[in-house]
């Protein structure tokens, strides 16, 4: 049936720190409040109801949120009737082992580097992943985006990954985003199992001093060594081990530091780099876009290619840079 919708409405579920939601994207600074269901008794059943209703409304020509009207992810096409989850995000932010100065959760953590849970019990997702599998609600070709806080320090992460990687009836892809401080052998196993899978480590610096300033922990050498371990332990798809650099205004926004990052990446033996700009804190408190971010972003892209690396970019970052606005719903 042809109608306007998006892959998140049709097949998405996102586990955030405060709620489970259909769409974890931004519509300017507005949240999709009807989709945000707190982790209370019966939230999973309620989520299924809300999602199914949203799909039915789309079929009637009614998009579920005013922000959908201009969202670049919305498209009119012949949508598949299979509404099993294909886009699964785990970004519940309950634990971390560093304190990035740009973290979107600073208003909640009050600057703390250690575990937090916003005065609520820890969010435990493994039982729901098991239930979704049992009810055949996860598509065999699903893609998981797993962030954290820091996913490598989540207690249930190893069991969750082993469960998903051990499903012989499926071929899942993963985007595993990490700060790289703690080594996780399951990352390499995931990359070896599916070409779509990547490890994205936000190092954001080309020197130990800059890393300490941004991450507020002295673990730069650990990250460098873990890059090397991932390269050694990954038999296939080594180009899917990605180093990311986020430009932070008035902190690491210099060509010199970017050049150091690129040179270090070359020495490590990495094949793929990802340029980015500071965006996380804008989720909480949107600010005025700085033109210097665009200039350095384009400089990074040029240098990455010039030095023979593969380059990975995010569509919404590209949109922000091109439009010089944090509203990702503005169409380029």
Q: Which runs of at least 5 residues are low in confidence (pLDDT < 50)?
A: 116-120
Counting DSSP H or I runs of 4 or more residues, the number of helices is 12
**Cα shape:** globular
N-to-C SSE series? EHEEHEEHHEHEHEHHEHEHHEH
Structural class: alpha/beta
Overall pLDDT, averaged?
88
Helix content: 25-40%
What summary fits the major beta sheet? Answer: 9 strands, mixed
Strand order of the largest sheet: 3-2-5-6-7-8-9-10-11
Beta-strand percentage range: 15-25%
Query: How many beta-strand runs?
Result: 11
Q: How widely separated are the two ends? A: 28 Å
Give me the Rg, rounded. Answer: 20 Å
Protein architecture, described:
With 332 residues, the chain is an alpha/beta fold. It has helices spanning 7-11, 43-59, 106-109, 126-134, 157-165, 185-193, 208-215, 220-233, 255-268, 280-284, 291-306, 315-323; strands at residues 2-5, 12-16, 20-21, 75-78, 85-91, 138-146, 173-178, 198-202, 241-247, 272-277, 310-311. Strands 3-2-5-6-7-8-9-10-11 form a nine-stranded mixed β-sheet. The protein has a two-stranded antiparallel sheet with strand order 1-4. Helix 6 (185-193) links the parallel strand 7 (173-178) and strand 8 (198-202). Helix 5 (157-165) packs parallel to helix 6 and helix 9 (255-268) packs parallel to helix 11 (291-306).
């Amino acid at each position: 049936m042809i109608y306007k919708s998006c892959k998140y409405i049709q097949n998405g579920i996102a586990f955030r720190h405060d709620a489970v939601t259909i769409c974890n994207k931004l519509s300017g600074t507005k949240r999709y409040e009807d989709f945000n269901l707190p982790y209370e008794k019966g939230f999973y059943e309620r989520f299924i109801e809300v999602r199914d209703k949203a799909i039915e409304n789309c079929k009637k020509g009614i998009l579920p949120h005013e922000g959908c009207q201009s969202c670049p992810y919305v498209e009119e096409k012949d949508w598949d009737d299979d509404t099993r989850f294909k886009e699964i995000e785990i970004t519940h932010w309950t634990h971390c082992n560093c304190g990035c100065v740009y973290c979107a959760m600073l208003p909640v953590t009050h600057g703390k580097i250690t575990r937090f849970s916003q005065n609520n019990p820890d969010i435990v997702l493994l039982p729901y992943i098991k239930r979704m599998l049992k009810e055949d609600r996860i598509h065999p070709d699903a893609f998981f985006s797993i962030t954290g806080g820091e996913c490598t320090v989540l207690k249930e992460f190893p069991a969750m990954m082993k469960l998903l990687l051990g499903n012989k009836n499926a071929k899942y892809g993963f985007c595993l985003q990490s700060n790289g401080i703690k080594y996780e052998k399951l990352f390499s196993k995931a990359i070896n199992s599916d070409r779509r899978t990547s490890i994205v480590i936000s190092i954001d610096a080309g020197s130990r001093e800059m890393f300490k300033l941004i991450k507020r922990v002295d673990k730069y050498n650990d990250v460098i060594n873990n890059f090397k371990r991932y390269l050694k332990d990954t038999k296939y798809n080594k180009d899917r081990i990605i180093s990311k650099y986020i430009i932070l205004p008035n902190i690491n926004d210099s060509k010199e530091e970017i050049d150091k990052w690129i040179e270090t990446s070359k020495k490590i033996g990495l094949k793929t780099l990802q340029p980015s700009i500071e965006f996380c804190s804008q989720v909480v408190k949107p600010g005025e876009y700085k033109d210097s971010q665009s200039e350095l972003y384009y400089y990074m892209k040029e240098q990455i290619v010039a030095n023979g690396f593969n380059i990975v970019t995010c569509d919404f970052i590209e949109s922000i840079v091109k439009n010089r606005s944090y509203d990702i719903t503005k169409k380029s």
